[in-house]
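Progress note, sequence design subtask.
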């Protein structure tokens, strides 16, 4: 048995793309397999004679090439997810390629892990989707990406962005500007996601044409939203009454995405989080999809995952 396994790629350009900037992907492969991985010309080499590791290495590189050719640029988290799927021999490995969002005249957004793939699949197939988990797991970003796809393909007439304004006690009258200017700071994460997906001028045009609407959750009462895509962000800060009010605003041909982190509840007093309550009483209702993210799904700086884990350990003590 050979002490090494060599995989020859089509050319050095493909090798560079697979290895990533500063060989970050190569390093991730090496860390996952626990064996030396290095390059030579257009070849990627595993310095191990272990047959199981050689088989996984071949399958992993093949998957990375397939993802790259689909437009999904390899990164360390993709390596980690693919490696885990190959070890556990799960069918979810195919979901990573199949569950992507194509935004017209813009880009493809691929999931970085299995829970993101499940979340995207849910958005394509259900009218109400809950994304629950810690910061940095892509809940808001993916919701915005799918909403923009629906709007730009004219499948929905309006995108409504809303959030409970707990910090201001739902009273925005003392802030300067019109309603959009008052609520805009609280919806900054949603705008940041849009900025990274489509040009700023396109966002402005959608707002001017009233295709994108921002509104504090308190202003949703009494409305019925038809043919709309509604995103409720920071839903852990809704009360039970607010969550019920929001969910019953959904009109004909509308969809809603609800995102939140139940470890960051800012509700005053003894209010029960509407997100926690909804997850308990709606989990068995057909037509509603729940995706639960964990610290393992954090896609920001790797330090964020460690920070989330540290706080979770403290809370269990």
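Output:
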């Amino acid at each position: 048995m050979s002490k090494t396994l060599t995989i020859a790629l089509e050319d050095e350009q493909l090798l560079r793309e697979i290895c990533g900037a500063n060989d970050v992907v190569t390093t991730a492969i090496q860390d996952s397999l626990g064996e030396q991985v290095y390059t030579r010309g257009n070849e990627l080499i595993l310095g191990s004679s272990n047959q199981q590791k050689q088989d996984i290495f071949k399958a992993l590189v093949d998957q990375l090439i397939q993802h790259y050719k689909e437009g999904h640029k390899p990164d360390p988290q993709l390596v980690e997810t693919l490696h885990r799927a190959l070890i556990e021999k799960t069918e979810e490995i195919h979901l990573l390629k199949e569950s992507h969002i194509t935004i017209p005249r813009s880009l493809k957004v691929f999931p970085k892990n299995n829970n993101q793939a499940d979340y995207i699949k849910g958005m394509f197939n259900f009218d109400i989707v809950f994304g629950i988990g810690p910061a940095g797991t892509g809940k808001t970003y993916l919701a915005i990406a799918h909403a923009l796809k629906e709007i730009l393909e004219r499948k929905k007439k309006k995108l409504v962005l809303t959030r409970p304004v707990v910090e201001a006690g739902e009273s925005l009258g003392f802030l300067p500007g019109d309603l959009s200017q008052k609520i805009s700071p609280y919806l900054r994460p949603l705008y940041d996601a849009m900025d990274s997906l489509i040009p700023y001028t396109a966002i402005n045009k959608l707002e001017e044409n009233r295709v994108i609407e921002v509104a504090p959750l308190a202003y949703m009462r009494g409305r019925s939203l038809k043919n709309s895509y509604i995103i409720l962000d920071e839903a852990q800060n809704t009360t039970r009454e607010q969550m019920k009010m929001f969910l019953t605003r959904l009109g004909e041909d509308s969809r809603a995405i609800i995102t939140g982190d139940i470890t960051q509840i800012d509700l005053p007093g003894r209010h029960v989080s509407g997100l926690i309550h909804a997850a308990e009483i709606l989990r068995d209702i057909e037509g509603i999809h729940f995706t639960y993210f964990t610290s393992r799904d954090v896609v920001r700086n790797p330090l964020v995952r460690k920070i989330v884990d540290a706080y979770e350990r403290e809370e269990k003590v």
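DSSP finds 13 helices and eleven strands in the chain. Work on this subtask will continue into the next period as scheduled.
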